[in-house]
Amino acid sequence: MKKQNVVLLVIVIIIFLALIIGATYAYFSVGNMNVINAVNSNTMTEQNNMVFDTVGGGMSLNISLAKMSDGLANSKFAAVTNTTDLTVNFTPNTDYDMVCTYDIVFEWTSSDRYTTHTSGVTSNEFTIQAYQTYNDNTKHGTNNILAEKDFTAAVGNNTSAVIVSGAKIDGSGSSTNTAVWHLISRIYNLNANQEVLEGKNFSGRFKVANVSCVAGTIGVTQIASGSVNENITWTLNSNGLLKITGSGAMPDYTSESEQPWRSNFNSIEYLEITGNITSIGNYNFYRTNNLIEVTISSPIVSIGTYAFSSTRLFTMTMPNTVTSLGANSFQNISNLSEVTLSSALTQIPNLTFENCPKLISINIPSGVTSIGYSAISTTGLSSITIPNSVTSIDNRAFRNCGVLTSVTYNGITYTSASEFTSSYGGTLGADVFMGTPLS
Questions:
Q1: 256, 343, 393, 409: least CB-packed within 10 angstroms?
Q2: What does the alpha-carbon distance between residue 81 and residue 78 come to, in Å, rounded to a whole number?
Q3: How many other CB atoms are found less than 10 A from the CB of residue 330?
Q4: Is the pLDDT confidence value at 192 over 70?
Q5: CATH code given to domain 313-439
C-alpha cells in the first residue's frame, strides 16, 4: 500500500473514533440515567448503537425514637440500615473493543437531608458504602470500592455526592457485560441525644453519571501464578480474582508473610476455591485487605485459625461440608454483615466473629454444642436464636453487642440476661451478655 494511502487511512480511522467517542460522551452526559425502583434503558442512536442500561433501587431510612434511644447508643452499631443493588449492563454493539468509565452518584429525594453532625459528636452518623459482586468474565476493569466514610463531610449542604468514581466496564460485539453494585446506607445510634431525628425519613436514589466510553483493549489477563504445594495451584487475574484449585489440604501458616500470593495481596478482591481442596489453613488469607467476596465449591471440611481475619468480606456462606472452624477465623472484619454457617458445624470457637460491628445476621446451626469465649462479641446483632443443642456458652460470648435486645432459646424469646440465665439448661460462663441492653 502506498504511503499516502496509509496516512489517509489512519486519518479516517482517527476521525471515525473521534466521532464515536464524542457522540458517546455527549449522549451519556445528558439525562443522568436516574434509577429508582425502575428499569432505565438508553439506546444509542449514533453510529455505534451502544446500550448502557441501569437497573436500581432507592434508599430509605425511616427513623423512630426507639432506634435512637440513649439505652442503645453506641457509635459502632447502625440503628437503621438499608441495602439496594444497582445493576449496570453494557452492550457495545460494535466490531471493536470499547471501555467505559462511570461514576455512581447518590442523590437526595426527600426534604430531610443529613447535612450536619449532632452537637458534640465526632463519629460517623450517616454513611454509604459500595462494593461490586464478581460475575465470572462479565466484570472487567477496576472495582472502585468506596470505604465507609463520613458522608456529611463529603456532601455538606449539597444534594448529591459521588459514591463510586472511575468504575470500568468493557466489551465488544453484541454481548452484554454486567456489573452489580451493592450499596449500603446506615444511620448510627451515637452516644448523644438524637431525638431530633424522630419521625424523619431520609430517602434518595443512586444513579450512573459521567459515563465516558473509548475504544480500548478489553479482557482479563493473568498477572501472577504459582503453587501452594505439590497438589494445589493458584492464579491471580487482572480483575482481582484469586483462583485456587487442586486437591487435599492447604498448608498452615504462622503469619501472612508466608502466603505465596503475598506480594500481590492488595490486588485480591475475589477468591474462588475449586477442585477437591479439603481445608483452608491457618492465616491463609489473613490481612488480605481488599478481599470482599469468597466462593467455595470444594468440599472444605475445616477453616483454620485467623484464616479470613482482617479482610473486607461483606458476607460469608460456608459450604455444609465444614465441620470445624479455628479460633479468630473471622475476627476483625469491619464490613461483614451476614454469615451463613455450615449445618455440619459443631462448635463456634473463641473469638471467631469478635469485633465484626456490622454483623447483623448469623445462624447457629442445630448441631452446634458450644459457643466459645467472646465468639460473637462486639457485633451489630439485635437478636440471636440459640438452638437447644448448645450446652455450653463461654465467658463474654456476646459481650458488647450494643443493640442485642433479645435471645430466643427453646422456643422462648428473652429480653433480659437474668431471664435467660434462669431458664438455660447448659453451662453458662461469666458476663455472657455484658455491655448489651440485655444486661
A1: 343
A2: 6
A3: 25
A4: no
A5: 3.80.10.10
